Amino acid sequence: MPASGPGTFTTAQATGQTVGTSGPVRRYQVQVEDGAGVPAEQAAAEIQVIIADPRSWAAHGKGRFQLVAADTVPDVTVKIATPKTTDRLCASVGDTHGELNCEVTGGIVVNLKRWLLGSPQYHGPATEYRHLIINHEMGHLIGYQQHMACPGAGKPAPVMQQQIKGLDGCTSNAWPYTREGAFIAGPPAP
Description:
The protein is an alpha/beta fold and 190 residues long. It has four helices and six strands.
């Protein structure tokens, strides 16, 4: 996995149906830093599946989402970037230390390291941790600016908990909602 890259991106030439039950449509593009070793179309397909999942934001009236290609102006850009590029792109919102992801004006920056390797604090495969990355950062974009804390030992961590910084007794969780449709909440994080 490269620690740095050229800072240029390839946009996935992929489109999808609008998913979601209500709310504004947010058109999103997926871009991958050149040389990252992740095909942009593959990442876009995976993100589209995450967003369309019945446990995700779109299934619960928090907005509608549509994957769009490079010839459409997006509302949101999801960039998968090397750790050094992530640090640079996220600098306006804080130091990501080559480890974290961030939400910035107009988009999400996903750290390639986290995309490929997951998080040591998250008990599950890297592919499942990707669900958490997308749901957590999309949560910020749709208005959940406040992080949440663990609601109690043994309970699922809220998707808005910064699980990469520790679970505080909760169990790993990548989704804002349960299979039954209940929102997984916690108290505001300090």
